[in-house]
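User: Batch of two.

Assistant: Item 1 of 2:
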Amino acid sequence: MPTEPTDPQRVEQLDALAHPQRLALFRLLVRRYPDEVPAGELAQALEVRQNTLSSYLSSLRHAGLIEQTRMGRSLLYRVRMDRTGGLMSYLFADCCRGRPELCPPSASETARSEPKYNVLFVCAGNSARSLFAESILRTEGGDRFNAHSAGTQPRSAPHPLAIELLADRGHDIAPLRSKTVAAFRATDAPAMDFVFTVCDRAANEECPAWPDQPLTAHWGMPDPVAVTGPDPERRRAFADAYTVLERRIQGLVDLPIETLDRASLQRRLDTLALTQEPQ
């Protein structure tokens, strides 16, 4: 039987990913999508030298898997989802001939056992942003969603200003506590339908893939806990974070989830990440 020709571009893409650190860089940019991430932040997150990172970025760019833009003196990088999707389609449809045993079923193909969608918001400390998101979704979408939050490196307790703000806005603060994301990977944890990272630090961390293939999106935003200065400035930072998350979560609640296919829903979730901070 004659050998079928192999798409040269696919070979180049696979070759670019066939290196542990280049693959780690690519995976980080996928987790951060749709962010454009500065090269310096990438080097810091991966703990590599700048010149080494430049070589990795050049390989991925040449293969068409990432794109580069310039903002002032900074170079920013983002995954090219169109090219990445083409590679995944090629592997499944061409190399694997579409065999279903080689591709696990998507969430849209799996029967739901829960009447509500389980949603997890993740940040590093689980002391402000993720707790805001959990509380807002519990209030705005309680009839359709179960809201949870966790931290990759949780603090000992929620930040007092976060709790104060939530109480002032009428949220039930009694169930709120800082907890580890590991608890939601346990065998007895609820299966997640959606997982959102709401801080860059959490998205930069290399974590195992979630079971049950939940839809994931990065809704990164500045950490109000990190703001220093006069009390009014700190309180405004917390209020701004709350407002942005409220807008994004209202967008999630308004989505016709049941009528969207998985790819369309993912695009809508990524678009919601572009909701900007208050001016």
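Item 2 of 2:
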Amino acid sequence: MTLAVQHARLLFVETARVPIALGFNVAFPTVLMLFFVVPNSAIADDPAGATVATAQITVFAVMNSCLLNFGVGVAEERARAWDPYLRTLPAGPLPRMAGRVLNGFAYILLAVTPVVLVAPLLTEATLPPSALGLAIPVIMFSSLPFLFGGFAIGYSMSVKGALPTAQAVMFPMAFAGGLFLPPETFPGWLDTVSRVLPTRAARELGVWAVVESPVSVVAIAALCGWTALTMVLAVWAYRRDEGRRFR
């Protein structure tokens, strides 16, 4: 655990030394909130609508942090000469993986916090402490498919391939998952497809955490299924990379 904390500290400091990287990760979801939710009086002036919109932006912040930190971040790390040396150490890959996960969770909280602070100040969103207490574990659980998906991208691609792939995954999944437009506006076929996506599942659980709505069993099942699938892909990508570079 000590090694994992040290790895997390190292990764955090490395990113913090590049202000544009830290600022983009933290500010981008808040900018979306300020541009698309706050000026829209039909949403901002409706407590339920503003709260649901906040949950949607929060899920996007989680996905953005995971795909960039774990996808692009891992690809960048693999390109450095330091990475092969670390893999030869007797500690094994688990401390490094755990450290990157801890670092990712830290950036998730940094990205989500401004959105949660802006929402009650500039809209009619209601986020009581009890809802926040439930929302935090829901956010962490919902981040798992994107976390492992980021690992799969980072360990299977170069930096040049990881960045466009992460973006190509992020924006279509965000749209189809109801993070930019409410699923109620979707045509029937898109709504059906949307229900099996991890973004839609994360949105449904996020809305359940902050608004009085029934728990979606389909969302929980979809999130668990995507978590298992992306975990398998991440393990495969890591072993494939290790086999190619160190045999």
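The chain has one domain: 2-246.
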